[in-house]
Amino acid sequence: MVNSCSATRLKRRHRQEKLFQFCGLMSVVFAIAFLVLLFGFIASKGHKAFLRSEIAVVVDLSKIGLSEEINYRKLVKDSLRQNFSEINESDLYR
After folding, report:
1. CB 79 within 8 A of CB 60
2. Dihedrals phi, psi of 71, to nearest 5 degrees
3. Which pLDDT belongs to residue 39?
4. Which of 17, 18, 41, 79 is most buried, judging by how many CB atoms fall within 10 Å of its CB?
5. Which portions of the chain are predicted below pLDDT 70?
6. What's the pLDDT score for residue 82?
7. Hey, what's the torsion of the CAs at 25, 26, 29, 33, to 10 degrees?
């Protein structure tokens, strides 16, 4: 009687241990899959951050006075419009 009770408890304990190991393994697999998915999204959205473009533009500073506040954004836009006059503003936002 003692042997049969301990044998059934031992079987139950082994079954629970196997279930626990399986759940642990599945949680690790889920975590790795989630990390791969997360890094995949980051790489697909952020690959453009590794590209760099440069344009050399001559900016005419003779139009501004020293006493007034300088709007650098307007100076650069005006210079770009002069150098690339064939491009319309609406073409930039297509």
Report:
1. yes
2. -100, 95
3. 93
4. 79
5. 1-2, 65-68, 89, 91-94
6. 81
7. -170
57 and 80 in contact (C-beta within 8 Å)?
yes
CA distance linking residue 10 with residue 15, whole number of Å: 9
**H-state helical runs in the chain:** 2-46, 72-83
Measured in degrees and rounded to the nearest 5, phi and psi for residue 57 equal -125, 135
Structural contact between residues 64 and 90, judged by C-beta atoms closer than 8 angstroms? no
- Six token digits for residue 51: 């590209």
Torsion angles phi and psi, residue 78, rounded to 5: -65, -40
pTM here is 0.48
Residue range 30-50, pLDDT digits in tens: 999 999 999 999 888 888 777
* Closest of 72, 79, 81, 73 to residue 58, by C-alpha: 79
